[in-house]
Amino acid sequence: MTLQERDKKYLWHPLTQHKLHPEHLAITRAKGSLLFDENGKEYIDGIASWYTCMYGHSNNYITNKVAEQMKTLDHVVFAGFTHEPAIKLSEALINILPNNQQKLFFSDNGSTSVDVAIKMSLQYHFNKGEKRGKIIALEDGFHGDTFGAMSVSGLSVYNGPFEEFFIDVARIPVPTEENIDSVKEEFISLLEKENVASFIYEPLVQGAAAMKMHKAHLLDELLSIAKKYQVLTIADEVMTGFGKTGKNFASEYLINQPDIICIAKSLTGGMVPMAITSCTQEVYNTFLCDDLTKGFFHGHTYSANPIACTAALACIELLQSDEIQNDIERIVKSHQDFDNKIKSHPKVARTRQLGIIYALDLALEMERYGDLRYRLFNFFMENGVCLRPLGNTIYILAPFVITDKQLKKIYQSIEKMLDTF
Ligand SMILES: Cc1ncc(COP(=O)(O)O)c(C=O)c1O
Questions:
Q1: DSSP-based helix, strand, coil % in the chain, nearest 5
Q2: What is the pTM of this model?
């Protein structure tokens, strides 16, 4: 039996209706920007496996560091104990995070980093003796699948069974040049009427909403207002973090820095899961008290796992290297050239780019998550390119180490798709 056949017996895959999509391609090996299936066919990983493996799959620099760490200290409880990998990581990360970030809290994935941020923001006001229970989020945002993260995400047909159990959230439209005045009005009216604890947003790029982008100065206007009302601002940089937008963090494009930042995904370069919620000294200080119960009683068994911390530290070293910084510049330029070539194609409705994130919307009618998405995905895979269209949006978010030749192959497969569909 092939792996693909054996898979069906016991495995339940994420985000999958198994009745409609029972087949799962078995990948046996990955290196650099390539995935290899069980028949030896190769695919360029055009989305860096959900934006994690940004330094290339099975990157030797990271694997060597991780292998050494595995032999020295595998795991230890992070409550009451500490270790060098976490300490070194904290020093390196604080150095690249926006200046106001001072404390790091560990968890396991993007969703839990958001749940931690939400809980932190609720308890921040609770500890100050204020009753603030509402969170404001942007429409169409995506923050993950745990209850808190799901609650602050945009409404989705998939959340039907859970909606009545959501935490208290109000959603406002993503600001545009056209709607900014009405969005500000709506925002202020919520802040005046409700007891708002925090405002959560994906800075500049809403990943799961098909790489929808908004302008920094518009988001800044909302952040200025939030600050006036002492509402904590939470930047979910799970997708945008670590160089993808052309800066280490998308928040660097903004004047108003967030009180709390969520990071995961490429934090560990796809090697092992880990997430961090960072915050300002002011947020942290609100939890410092002789009263035990004012501490933050949240914790995951694998918090600050030394192997994950080592992987993350290696990733930060790579991110800061000249090689990776040059790769980022190279990809930015390459996408711009491709954009100039493709943007007036009759089947391209619009294109957008920030850093190495490139997206194009097809001028084709479809339902979101309808059949077209699967046909496009299969077309790209047959052509040896792994791109996962979101609705009728094709996006590229490839590893920084992708070669020019591999990039060209992605572009050519998109052009071929435009001629075919
Ligand atoms: C912006 C953002 N936040 C949170 C998450 C959730 O992360 P995870 O899948 O690691 O739980 C994602 C996942 O795509 C994301 O894009």
A1: 40, 20, 40
A2: 0.97
